[in-house]
Design brief:
Oligomer: single chain
Number of strands: 0
Largest sheet: none
Order of helices and strands: HHHHHHHHHHH
Helix content: over 70%
Strand content: under 5%
CATH superfamily of the largest domain: Tetracycline Repressor, domain 2
Number of domains: 2
CATH class of the largest domain: Mainly Alpha
CATH architecture of the largest domain: Orthogonal Bundle
């Protein structure tokens, strides 16, 4: 790893740690520089300013996150929507499990009424909305999902896959459940899929009636 790459990584790691523990608004460039053991000028060189660092951290989360959903949409060409949704749930949980600090930071900042964050996130969230809607629309069109309002299905899915990571401290202290554990991702994915089995997916008997 080159010196420049090492410094850039140190800055990013320090910024993410401080954003995660102190919040974006509560973190200064000087705080980040001190933790990363660099001059503020280094941060300005690589990221311009604090908002540039924020944009980079959010991109680190949403680009691979959305890539997983885009992959699911492509899979609709050769897989049924039910299988696609089940596999997507597993992948999104595993991704968040492996990137707990980044995930907690992004979902927490999204819950704060911040104009800066809203402006940065708007493009990512509109793309996420379009992709998830595409999956649910496909399930409705192919009659493998019970006909329900798509917007509510998307909201319920997001609530289930984000809650443990947004509230990781609550999960650990109250329930002794640790969202960073692979075991949790696997077990929780089964629970979400079972919920959808009962609430969303059309049974063979229902399919016969519909047809």
């Amino acid at each position: 790893m080159s010196y420049a790459t090492h410094k850039k990584t140190e800055i990013l790691d320090s910024a993410l740690y401080l954003f995660h523990t102190k919040g974006y608004a509560g973190t200064s460039l000087r705080d980040i520089a001190t933790k990363a053991n660099v001059n503020v000028a280094h941060i300005s060189y690589y990221f311009h300013n604090k908002q540039g660092l924020l944009e980079h951290c959010i991109a680190m989360f949403f680009e691979p996150y959305l890539n997983e959903i885009e992959k699911a949409v492509r899979e609709l060409e050769h897989k049924d929507p039910r299988t696609v949704l089940n596999e997507l749930i597993k992948r999104l949980l595993k991704f968040q499990c492996k990137n707990l600090s980044l995930t907690r930071f992004v979902w927490r900042e999204l819950s704060i009424d911040s104009q800066v964050v809203r402006e940065i996130l708007s493009t990512y969230l509109m793309k996420e909305r379009f992709l998830l809607k595409t999956i649910f629309d496909a399930g409705n069109r192919k009659r493998v999902f019970v006909k329900r309002p798509v917007e509510y299905m998307v909201v319920q899915l997001k609530a289930m896959i984000t809650m443990p990571f947004l509230n990781a401290q609550y999960m650990a202290e109250i329930w002794q459940i640790y969202p960073q554990d692979t075991y949790f991702a696997n077990r929780y994915a089964k629970e979400i899929i079972e919920w959808f089995n009962q609430y969303l997916f059309i049974t063979e008997e229902q399919a016969m009636i519909v047809n």
